[in-house]
Amino acid sequence: MNAPTRILDTMTELHRFLFCSANAGHAQWLSAALCDEGVVLQEAGRPAQLQQRIGDLDPQVVLLDFSGDPGGRIDDDSADGGFVGAIELAQMLKRVAPKLPLVAVGSMVRADGMKAAIRAGVHDFIDMHSTHEEALDVIRRVIDQTPPPSAVSPQRHGRFVVLLGARIGVGCSTLAAHLSQLGQEMVLGVHPDKAARAAKAPANKDDKFDASRVGHVALLDLGLPSGDGLLYLNTQSQFSFAEAVQNLRRFDETLVHTAVSHTPSGLAVLPLPLDLGDMRSVAAADALALTDRLRTFFDLVVADLGGFSNPAFVASLVRAADEVWLVVDQSVGAIVSLASMLRDLEAKGVERHHLQLVLNRYDPRYGMAADQIAKRFEISLLATLPDRPLAMLSATNQGKLILDTARSDPYVRALQPLVERLLSAQHAGAAAQRHSSGWLGRFMGKH
Fold first, then answer.
1. What angle do CA 356, 360, 365 make, to 5 degrees?
2. How does pLDDT run across 417-447, given as a tens digit for each residue?
3. Which residue positions does 4-aspartylphosphate occur at (predicted)?
4. What was the pLDDT predicted at 80?
């Protein structure tokens, strides 16, 4: 049976145990045995389907049926004593959620089930012929040995960069997509020649995402028109920024792996919801809490807010960002919009020294020089990015980034030092945090 996700809101004080099996009798026995410690949620399906449900249900422990009972299988294969589905699911979970504890459920009298569970690498075993108290002891032991989510990555505090387009159409989303993807590749150490060869290879829609590559760069695709970031990255997503905020209480590494969309390189993408009206329920404080949570999982978080129309929401993220890039081009409309944006930000308490100017589609022949624009608005000039309309359009029409089609393009070369600087700053901050994470740093953090 499929447990409704809405019941999770009533379980804040209880542990959730996900039992992956079609055997209703086993589920009833486990529910009775573990009722003092939590709630047993039963799910039956193939591993590919269960991966999404695990992200939705956010269990503390996953129980796998190694009883060998045909009524409990989650696969249609009769080979290997009926344990194929449980083994496959265990392998998938160790790949996408390596810190999620796995407990086998079966019978001590079936040696083949015990051996299959051991090969699958489970953390412990519940004997269905034991007492409820013994089963409860197993679960409590597993929970006690599992570190809390806050202890998973105490050292990481990724860099948060906000990109603000002066107006729709200045190339803010294009920049955000390229910046994020290039950052992901640099962190992974992908050689440019290797990346270029991979880009020329035909795409395989059946390619599976390797979760071991998660934990580097995330893109918040919140710019307007909505979904441009996903479009440029040739990626789809069923999980939006608004849903992530709604699930903030249980937004952990498992949810990052199972619910958040990723490109083949591992770049995580959280877009706007399909119904933009859903963003009205997103409070600025909750959005800030989500970005802070994301920084514990990713080295770099890039937020595209080009064209976002809620000044209070924008200002709250801007104040929390490590860097804020104002993206503008040399058109009169963009310059006028930049002046209006600066007034709005100052009215919300954002000081200009916290802002940096990125002049996109820049060509000296267009008129006003970059340093003149920066001086006019009293903003430091971070970079100029060349106007490359033909190369950009050609890449977009192929469903690719210019990174993939023309790695040596002047636009890419102009981006590289920006990404290197961001990653260097993040690594320096992480090193300083590690230095202060000894007993004295922990003591100071409590006072």
1. 120
2. 999 999 887 766 555 554 444 323 433 344 3
3. 65
4. 43
